[in-house]
Amino acid sequence: MPNFQYTAIDAQGQHTTGTVQAGSESEATSFLRSQNLYPTKIVKRGRDSQGAAGKKAATKARRRSKPRGAKAGLTVIACGLILLVGALFIQNLSNEARASEEATRAEISEQQRLTEDREEQARQSEGLLIESEK
Description:
- By secondary structure, the chain is an alpha+beta fold.
- The chain has a domain at 2-69.
- The chain has 2 helices and 3 strands.
- The chain has helices at 25-34, 52-133; strands at residues 2-10, 15-21, 37-47.
- Strands 2-1-3 form a 3-stranded antiparallel beta sheet.
- It is rod-shaped, with a radius of gyration of 38 Å.
- The chain starts with a strand and ends with a helix.
């Protein structure tokens, strides 16, 4: 199986290099992506020419990417929780605003009723004054 030397960027934006064995360049790309690495360059090297140092570097690159992948998953979960808490906070604010608006409307209605009562009393008083002057 041929070896492919790669340069890739991990989920944190760090550059990493190494060698991976794969049947084709697309298989090498798929493998690297499964390791949360995004290849920027892949070059085919000789068949099974990877020495001990190259194998060690490739293994090290695979090991490094696994915890980062788990961290990325936790980051996604944390972001989801933050969005959920934010949505609940906004919903709570919206409910409070509705309740306040309803209380304000009730208060305005009460003030309008009192104003109408006062106007009615003024009309009655005016009517009584007119009658008493006759």
